[in-house]
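Can you make up a polypeptide sequence alongside its tokenized fold?
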Amino acid sequence: MPVHNAAPYLDEAISSILNQTYRDFEFVILDDGSTDDSYDRLRDWATRDDRICLHRQERNSGPAESSNLVVGHSRGSLIARMDADDRCHPDRLARQVDLLGLRPEVGLVGSLCNVIDQRGRVVRGPDVWRLARKSWFTPFPHGSIMYRRAVFEQAGGYREACVYWEDQDLFLRMAALSTIVTIPVPLYEHRQSPLSTRLVSETEFVENSVDLAYRCLNRLGEGRGYEDLLDRDSSPNRVAPRVFVSLGSLQLWAGQRPRLFRRLIRRADLRPNLQSLAVLVWTLWAALSPGTLRAFMRLLSKLKNAAVRQDLSKGGAVAWLKPGDLAALK
């Protein structure tokens, strides 16, 4: 678990790991240059449970490098990720360890999640419908995963060139090597708060990074790799309009009022098509009435879930991607 300025939520995150029904683990925590009282809280927890292995570095290295560093400090052949502002179901680790033990072809397993706000209230249920469609976007949050260290190392770990979508990039490269599956029940609670890394980092850089993610995923949709896009050292003048829905959604579920319309007009590559129109409507709606937009999105998710005909929770883990799906990344 990498930590950077997550003091308000650390107690809940740590408790949810230490109280797992599966007990035999080391809990590697890296304080990544926090400037709040995160490290003091971490030291206190480390004195109370000898499973905690606490590390600290003075400078903040960012999400990609800190994620590699915390894995480097660990010793296990199975690695479970945890984010410092989220919470786990008590059986999360047990179920993931059991699955990886039974299915050697699986290299990584995530789970569905509930979305919680900064107060810990569930504001959105699991998107079961994501399991029933083919998509390059992961149906599980980063913090919910457990994976085989050997597959992680073979894939090359997290890449700084993909910062702010380093998890998505890693999962795609791991899927070129092994099967990735999702446990179709919410074993994880993913918090949306104003302290989200994407929300507190430099705005234009984050926008450019999310735009790069969309361009790379478009390449995959065309059956091509995207390595050449990562080598380019130029920032786009305009970014895909849906970048602002992606970033605005973080604010929306954190209970904020996204005010992105002016940035959308200034930076988005708007065109006379339905996608641009939909984004314009979304950003205006978010600014004028975030509460009704949240209600609409919850309703939309429920309708999509209801449209899934089979009961996915009865059939065990659901495959997201298999090696044959990603020949372009081998």
